[in-house]
Design brief:
44% of the residues lie in helices and 15% in strands. With 397 residues, the chain is an alpha/beta fold.
Length: 397
């Protein structure tokens, strides 16, 4: 009996050591990563998949021994989809939790609100939002993982409408920071190719009725429509258009891509086009695609653990993966619990991110520079279509 009890004690001690080895590699204090996300409120559908993927990746890094022999420790805070709460969360993560970087920021509005706090706190802010005002003009401490709609969506979707016979293209957008960026891209592209929009309409965030806007679009004689928005408002625009008898092709900005839009669009979603990062259609990619391996890996792990794949999962994968890779190049002797060392870690991390070249990510292949804190090239997304209730790689013209 004594031998049996002794064996149990040894096994328990071994298990405890294994767990603690993962959590506190070599007894070193962790690098704290701040993760302010919209986990409740209107844009929680963006924050939740990001949270899931960041947790998954950090678990992988820690099981492999951490970074520089230190584990990564996440401090996840809910922004509640509110800019003011995001500012408070960012300040807490920098001043109280001593985060080496803050990544997440689910929407353009919450990101823009927090920029001043990150800049004054000299801490990297990694955004998952689409407005190019986040990184243009360049802010020293602010980086982004989402491509501009001009690089990843608008030209592709407008060209598609024209190839399908449209001669008078209308545009409809959500009136917030994201939508304003979309409007600028739309205006710039139609001017570039020399066409005049049939009409431009907008609606408020969380709109519940867009029948007036759709009626104006119908009356304009538009024979094609491009809609920029998020899942709920874009689905409302689609359903309203079809129910009011607008039969022309409708293409969408990349903000709609995910299971939420398919569910909300219901029968009206079949045949809808947009663009997406490659992971959404990972297995359909040609073997020659350099991103296929990382895209398939994320798709398989995410769908196995959480169900339907979300576009936003890729944003979380990119920000935490680039952060971990660059942290590995920081002086390993610097202690993040010491104020002066923490300041040096943050500074070295920022400089190393800015020098990152050819990082094989989910949103594209990243190459940052002092003048470009987005780092993604034109054509980084692929066209996708809803077929039989699922997003698929679009192979049409």
């Amino acid at each position: 009996m004594k031998k049996f009890l002794m064996l149990i004690m040894v096994l328990c001690m071994g298990l405890s050591w294994a767990v603690n080895r993962d959590v506190h590699a070599a007894g070193k204090e962790p690098y704290v990563i701040g993760v302010p996300l919209d986990l409740t409120g209107p844009t929680s559908f963006i924050g939740k998949p990001v949270e899931a993927v960041i947790k998954m990746r950090v678990d992988e890094f820690n099981k492999a021994g951490g970074i520089n022999g230190r584990p990564l420790k996440l401090v996840i805070l809910d922004n509640e989809s509110a800019p003011a709460k995001t500012v408070l969360n960012t300040k807490k993560l920098i001043d109280v939790d001593k985060a080496v970087a803050c990544l997440g920021y689910s929407s353009s509005g919450t990101t823009l609100a927090a920029i001043e706090t990150a800049e004054s706190g000299e801490t990297v802010l990694y955004s998952h939002a689409s407005s190019d005002k986040i990184w243009i003009p360049t802010k020293k401490w602010v980086f982004n993982v989402v491509p501009r709609t001009m690089e990843a969506c608008t030209p592709m979707m407008i060209d598609n409408l024209l190839k399908r016979g449209a001669k008078k293209v209308a545009y409809m957008y959500i009136d917030n920071a994201m939508g304003q960026t979309g409007l600028e891209a739309f205006n710039a592209y139609v001017q570039k190719i020399g066409i005049k929009p049939a009409i431009i309409e907008k609606h408020e965030p969380a709109a519940t009725d867009v029948s007036a806007q759709i009626t104006h679009i119908k009356n304009s004689g538009a024979d094609g429509l491009f809609v920029d928005g998020l899942a709920a408002d874009a689905a409302l625009a689609l359903k309203t258009a079809r129910e009011l008898g607008f039969k022309a092709p409708i293409n969408f900005g990349y903000g709609v891509v995910g299971p939420e839009f398919i569910r909300l669009a219901s029968k009206y979603g079949e045949g809808v086009l947009s663009t997406s990062l490659r992971a959404l259609v990972a297995k359909e990619l040609p073997d020659s695609d350099p991103q296929k391996k990382v895209a398939v890996d994320l798709y398989e792990k995410y769908t196995k653990a959480f169900g339907d794949f979300s576009l936003y999962a890729g944003h979380g994968w990119d920000s935490i993966s680039i952060t971990a890779q660059t942290l590995a190049k920081v002086d390993p002797n610097l202690d993040p619990t010491k104020e002066e060392d923490l300041k040096k870690i943050r500074s070295q991390l920022r400089a190393t991110i800015e020098a990152t070249k050819n990082f094989l990510g989910q949103n594209g292949i990243f190459s940052y520079s002092p003048d470009n804190h987005n780092g993604l090239p034109p054509g980084c997304y692929v066209p996708v279509v809803i077929e039989k209730g699922k997003w698929a790689l679009y192979k049409g013209k």
